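Weekly sync, protein design subgroup
Attendees: M.S., D.O., the rotation student, P.L. (late)

Item 1: inverse folding check
M.S. brought a backbone from last month's batch and wanted to see whether the design step gives back something sensible before we order anything. D.O. pointed out we never logged the input encoding, so this time it goes straight into the notes. Structure tokens as presented (603 positions):
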């Protein structure tokens, strides 16, 4: 980004549109405060030249009253400005965080894989908080500090032109220092946030994999790797901190030298009777005001550079277009498709009753040149159960993830209910498809709340029917609160098998046309698995069911079994056909059937 500051400020303004009033009122109150502050040195000068010089105590007390009044008015203005600035900043952060979260939800699995979870969490939290602080301080100080600096210079000219020339030299020098440090530190702060991403990523990985790390006694190695990442972050922070730390001493040196010059020039002017002692004090006060404001401005610039770096990172996510484009109105596309294909073709699709069709589909993850799936073609009709089996990494989960468009097929096309998946809106398509993911994920809330993710309007009877089909009735009835039993985050208070059964029930509550079970019974014993398959058979006539499994027993009764190896379909057919024709399937079956038969007998 060639001009990151103005680019980010433009992005920020778009989220401040609902807080225009607060964004205007806050700086105005700060400028009012600054105006009253600039009057103070003149009042002090009058107090010295008139009250103290003439020994007029009444005048001195009168000027003191004016100073107190200016202080009270300034305090009211400052509090008002801070209130409106805080309101605008918090509202801005709320809208930005909401927009960022909503945009992340639109990103495909491929986008999320590429960006990374840890950096998205950092951008949602740390970066947005930094932007909130930046907006707050900008509204309070970004106009006030320059106004005071240049206002003090103008007021100095009203006192004495010759002495005021010192301000003309000092202010550009101070600006060079302040903005020079800002230009240097902006890219460095971006590196700081990147290093923070890596530390958070390492922390997240260690916390989620703590049991594995301890099981393999890798604590020392992980601590060392974390320390290395932490040291990189520390080194970058120290470098940018040292550069930023130069700002205060350099500005102090310039201001103090300017103050000495003012006193030196002022002394000569007083001796010659050109100006008074009070006016010299006023000039020194104006220079002191400039010093205070430049210290504030220096700190503000540091905060702005952090905010700009964080804003760039947030903008990178907001600007990223989802790799899977959604469509605004799928119904219009459906009408166009029907008109182009002709009524006869649509009639043929209805007669075939094909629910899911893959035609020469290939897919590769990210920029990888190696395909995860190659030339997959098959048809799945309504009422059929499709089994998918193969070794680890053969592409089983990848294949079923293409149906709801979690990933986009690279070649070929996929149809659901006679229409290309690209002709559906993502909402319409995913309403037709129910997915039970390989990793059982539950959310904090009651059992009923988790099950109603599939259908928010589901009745209690529908919930119990889904629970019965998923073989989870005994689990729910075993809980004291039944459907109101609270599930902890990630289902920590449930076993692996219980979590899997609840995720299956959640998909069944949705009542989808296509049900995908992605190795979702791996934690179930053979007996429960058999009961689950028998229960699913009772609803299979109205749905198309995809079962991904490592067990031949889980899919041997399927109407069509697809055998995958290295992303290619090496066999398709029924269980009996594949035993005769597919060597890969036969090897899998031969390695399992005795153990499975033994398990079924024990069950």
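Designed sequence read out in the meeting:
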């Amino acid at each position: 980004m060639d001009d990151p500051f103005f680019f980010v400020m433009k992005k920020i303004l778009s989220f401040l549109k609902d807080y225009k009033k607060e964004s205007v009122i806050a700086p105005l109150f700060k400028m009012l405060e600054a105006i009253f502050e600039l009057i103070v040195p003149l009042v002090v000068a009058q107090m010295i030249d008139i009250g103290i010089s003439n020994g007029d105590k009444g005048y001195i007390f009168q000027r003191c009253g004016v100073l107190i009044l200016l202080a009270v008015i300034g305090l009211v203005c400052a509090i008002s400005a801070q209130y409106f600035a805080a309101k605008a900043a918090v509202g801005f952060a709320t809208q930005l965080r909401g927009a960022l979260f909503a945009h992340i939800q639109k990103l495909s699995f491929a986008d999320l894989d590429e960006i990374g979870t840890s950096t998205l969490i950092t951008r949602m939290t740390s970066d947005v908080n930094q932007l909130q602080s930046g907006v707050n301080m900008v509204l309070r100080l970004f106009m006030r500090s320059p106004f005071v600096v240049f206002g003090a210079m103008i007021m100095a000219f009203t006192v004495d032109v010759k002495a005021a020339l010192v301000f003309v030299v000092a202010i550009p020098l101070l600006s060079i220092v302040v903005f020079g440090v800002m230009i240097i530190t902006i890219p460095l702060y971006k590196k700081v946030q990147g290093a923070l991403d890596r530390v958070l990523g390492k922390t997240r990985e260690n916390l989620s994999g703590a049991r594995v790390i301890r099981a393999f006694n890798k604590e020392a190695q992980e601590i060392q790797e974390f320390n290395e990442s932490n040291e990189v972050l520390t080194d970058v922070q120290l470098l940018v901190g040292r550069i930023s730390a130069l700002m205060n001493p350099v500005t102090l040196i310039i201001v103090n030298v300017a103050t000495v010059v003012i006193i030196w020039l002022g002394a000569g002017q007083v001796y010659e009777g050109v100006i008074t002692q009070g006016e010299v004090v006023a000039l020194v006060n104006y220079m002191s005001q400039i010093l205070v404001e430049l210290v504030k401005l220096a700190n503000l610039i540091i905060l702005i550079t952090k905010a700009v770096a964080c804003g760039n990172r947030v903008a990178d996510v907001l600007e990223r277009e989802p790799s899977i484009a959604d469509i605004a109105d799928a119904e219009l596309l459906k009408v166009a498709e029907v008109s182009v294909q002709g009524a006869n073709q649509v009639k043929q699709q209805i007669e075939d009753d094909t629910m899911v069709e893959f035609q020469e589909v290939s897919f590769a993850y990210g920029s990888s040149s190696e395909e995860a799936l190659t030339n997959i073609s098959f048809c799945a009709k309504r009422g059929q159960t499709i089994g998918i089996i193969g070794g680890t990494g053969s592409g089983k989960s990848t294949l079923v993830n293409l149906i709801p468009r979690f990933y986009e097929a690279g070649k070929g096309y996929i149809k659901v209910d006679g229409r290309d998946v690209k002709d559906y809106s993502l909402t319409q398509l995913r309403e037709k498809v129910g997915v039970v993911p390989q990793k059982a994920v539950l959310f904090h809330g009651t059992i009923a709340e988790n099950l109603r993710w599939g259908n928010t309007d589901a009745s209690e009877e529908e919930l119990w029917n889904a629970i019965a089909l998923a073989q989870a009735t005994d689990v729910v009835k075993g809980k004291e609160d039944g459907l109101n039993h609270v599930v902890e985050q990630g289902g920590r208070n449930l076993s692996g098998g219980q979590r899997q059964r609840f995720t299956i029930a959640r998909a069944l509550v949705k009542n989808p046309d296509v049900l995908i079970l992605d190795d979702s019974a791996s934690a179930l014993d053979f007996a429960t698995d058999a009961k689950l398959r028998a229960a699913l058979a009772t609803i299979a006539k109205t749905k198309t069911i995809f079962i991904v499994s490592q067990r031949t027993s889980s899919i041997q009764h399927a109407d069509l079994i697809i055998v995958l190896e290295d992303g290619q379909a090496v066999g398709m057919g029924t269980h009996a056909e594949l035993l005769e024709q597919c060597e890969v399937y036969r090897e899998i079956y031969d390695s399992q059937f005795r153990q499975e038969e033994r398990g079924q007998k024990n069950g």
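Discussion: The CA atoms of residues 441 and 466 lie 17 Å apart. The radius of gyration is 35 Å.
Action: P.L. to compare against the previous round before Friday.
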